[in-house]
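Quick illustration, no need to memorize.
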Amino acid sequence: MKLINRLLKYLREVRMELKKVQWPDKREFVVYTGVVVVTVVIFGILFWGLDALFLKILQLVVKR
């Protein structure tokens, strides 16, 4: 019973804290999402290129 009371208290406090959060409006949400998507694509291309480069280097080293 004590555990349930602690859990309920925790959930009430979480709800109170979430009410204090300043949520982004639709425009900000779209902009932030676009920034995240573009960043992920850029880093994905970067890591793909580095992986291809290291693979070629490794193939040259192993071939000899």
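The chain is about 90% helix and 0% strand.
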